Amino acid sequence: MKLSIVTTLYRSAGFIDEFYRRASEAAAKITADYEIVMVDDGSPDNSLDVALGLLQRDPRVRVVELSRNFGHHKALMTGLQHAMGELVFLIDSDLEEQPELIGRFHSEMAQGDWDVVFGYQQKRAGGLIRNHGGRLGWYLIDLLYSAKIPRNHCTVRLMRREYVDALLLHRESSVVIGGLWVITGFRQTGLAITKDHREHSSYTPVGRLAAFVNGVTAFSTTPLVLMALMGTFISFASFVLGLAVIAAKLINGSAVGWASIMVSIWFIGGIIVSCLGIIGIYISKIFIETKNRPYVIVRRIHQNDGVSTLEKAAAAKTALM
């Protein structure tokens, strides 16, 4: 197999047919030996039925049906696990990223002997709130992540088989695929792309915040270092303030009032609770990782003539543990 196109399905029913058509046309310009792997991430609409309809018409389509919704990043990693191509083109199916980019990425990879060619946005699409929120998010990512994540990078990327195999060696349950892309290494380069914007995204503000917290705690110990520095600073400031209060009492006979004491207690108490919460998040991740639960659970693999195969029969090859 020369080329695998991997995508995920979640509320994607309205895009699948056009995605398949455009992706197939773009892939055919590179090689006739290609496949399209679609991972149904427990989509609540009829995305699975639409994908199975394509499978009946084209044996190059394979559909991996997950037992429930596991999240975008885990679904992407599952698709990579099932891809068999020497080159793997990873892309979202919502058409915000153009399937035709595969031609441009393939040319760049051949010219520069790259292992990975990925897309990034020079200018973020969307309204004022989304743009400024994105800038703030990337600023915090640059500040808090241990790995240097390319700013405004996108899902779309073309990867060699050696890189994909190395990427799949990562087994953590708290998957932050953007960080894994970076720490896997190899020769990577980015190309500026124009990404379309959909008004309604599957990533809600709460979901984006949760993804950010998950990413920071999965890839960085910076919050713990900041807590230690903050504790040291507060301790030193409290010591200096205590000396000042004692000096004021001895020299002027003045004393700190009740209100000032209460404000200080609330301030220190809030910091302590916040620090305990951050530590709790790290401990919860350790707890989850030690359980060693399956990465995802595949309900069925649909391929060729549409016959479904139970995941149990292919567990040794397809399940990410």
Keyword list:
disordered C terminus, elongated, alpha/beta, 11 helices, Spore Coat Polysaccharide Biosynthesis Protein SpsA, Chain A, nine-stranded mixed sheet, 321 residues
Descriptive report:
- This protein is of the alpha/beta class and 321 residues long.
- It folds into 2 domains: 3-220 and 293-318, Spore Coat Polysaccharide Biosynthesis Protein SpsA, Chain A, CATH 3.90.550; 222-291.
- It is 50% helix and 17% strand.
- The chain is elongated, with a radius of gyration of 25 Å.
- It is built from 11 helices and 9 strands.
- The chain has a 9-stranded mixed beta sheet with strand order 7-5-6-4-1-2-3-8-9, with helices on both faces.
Question: Short summary of the structure?
Answer:
The chain has 321 residues and is α/β, with parallel strands linked by helices. The chain folds into two domains: 244 residues, Spore Coat Polysaccharide Biosynthesis Protein SpsA, Chain A, CATH 3.90.550; 70 residues. It has eleven helices and nine strands.
